[in-house]
Amino acid sequence: MVRLPDSANVQECSRDPRTDQELIAAANTGDAAAFEVLYRRHRDWVVNLAFRFIGDRDLALDVLQDTFLYFLKKFPGFELTCQLRSFLYPAVRNLCIAARRKAERHQSTGNELEDLEAPPPAGVAPAAHEHLAAALAGLSAEHREVLLLRFVDGLSLNEIADALEIPLGTVKSRLHNSLAVLRRDERTKKLLEQ
Amino acid sequence: MNHGDYLDERQPEVPQQFIDAITAAHGQRVLVPTEVDAAILDKAREHLQSVAGKRRIIRFPRWLAAAAAVVLAATVAGVWLQKRPAPPAFAREDLDHNGRVDILDAFALARKVQQGAVSAQFDMNGDGVVNSRDIDVVAAQAVRLDGKQG
């Protein structure tokens, strides 16, 4: 049986005006309600990021749980030194690699990230989206990752740099080059015409 | 083109239709069942309640703990000193504290006088100086026939 979400509680969490930093400070004192607000604020981003990496709904849900349990174990005493999504991103990515290894029991090829980042988009209308997906699949994993973090996840350039642990200039360069490739690509250049 | 100028993160130079398309292709797809929410949040409550429980334990300030340690140490030292047997009383002339005044004490004082290492405690005759007369006092005490010492 699937329980319906406690909508009142969800709404209350979504209206909480405290910043992530303030909620983390509260959670450090044992405030479970503050942790719940953090969970509901970032849950969908985490699970869909995991799905994007792994292309499997059930594994993505497993990764969601593992990510927040990893995060939970940081309390008490957790100090956030960047944006929370920048902190969570490497955890999600590594947990996806581990989950996929476990699921497929394949030998490591060293290309797990490349494998992870090319799931076929599901539930999307054909035509433009298919063309876009095909064009994105033609980008390198590093370039596609930056592009998706920027335009799908809405991370700032600095947050992307923190999440990927690369210099800001590299983020800008990868984004610039990705867009340049898509602008030249017959399948996607119309989408990028002003 | 300079990348930094080109990519102003507040106004990415891509049309909205591109953002809509890429979001549709890669955006929200997985709905999280409430069972998953409940499992995670139950664990969070359990873990964080233990954190809150630990915080409820009274914690004294460090200075107070240090002061308490000092008071305790002083008390223990006081009790120990009180219980310690008093040192045996020796005659002033019994320089080597062997319980009797003998010629060895006279020799010991003679050495001290010779070395100049003298103090008021060796002024046996109370004349204000420590010299051979004090040695004589100790020697006389050592050879007394009545056995009385001190």
How would you describe the overall organization of this protein?
The complex is a heterodimer of chains A (194) and B (150). Chain A has 194 residues and is mainly α. Chain A is globular and about 55 Å long. In chain A, 39% of the residues are buried. With 150 residues, chain B is mostly helical. Chain B is built from 6 helices and no strands. The chains are: A mainly alpha (194), B mainly alpha (150). Chains A and B meet through helix 3, helix 4, helix 7, helix 8 and helix 10 of A and helix 1, helix 2 and helix 3 of B.
Describe the protein's topology.
The complex is a heterodimer of chains A (194) and B (150).
Chain A: H1 7-15, H2 20-28, H3 32-54, H4 57-72, H5 84-104, H6 112-116, H7 128-137, H8 141-151, H9 157-164, H10 168-184
Chain B: H1 3-6, H2 16-26, H3 34-56, H4 62-83, H5 103-115, H6 132-142
For the termini of chain B, the CA-CA separation is 109 Å
Reading the helices and strands of chain B in chain order gives HHHHHH
Count the strands of chain A?
0
Judged by helices, strands and strand pairing, the structural class of chain A is mainly alpha
CATH class of the largest domain in chain A: Mainly Alpha
Number of helices of chain B: 6
Q: What's the total count of β strands of chain B?
A: 0
Oligomer: heterodimer
Global morphology of chain A: globular
First-residue to last-residue Cα separation of chain A? 48 Å
CATH topology assignment of the largest domain in chain A: Rna Polymerase Sigma Factor, Chain: A
Main sheet: strands, sense, barrel of chain B? none
Mean pLDDT of chain B: 78
Q: Which sequence of SSEs, written as H and E, runs from N to C of chain A?
A: HHHHHHHHHH
CATH superfamily of the largest domain in chain A: RNA polymerase sigma factor, region 2, helix turn helix motif
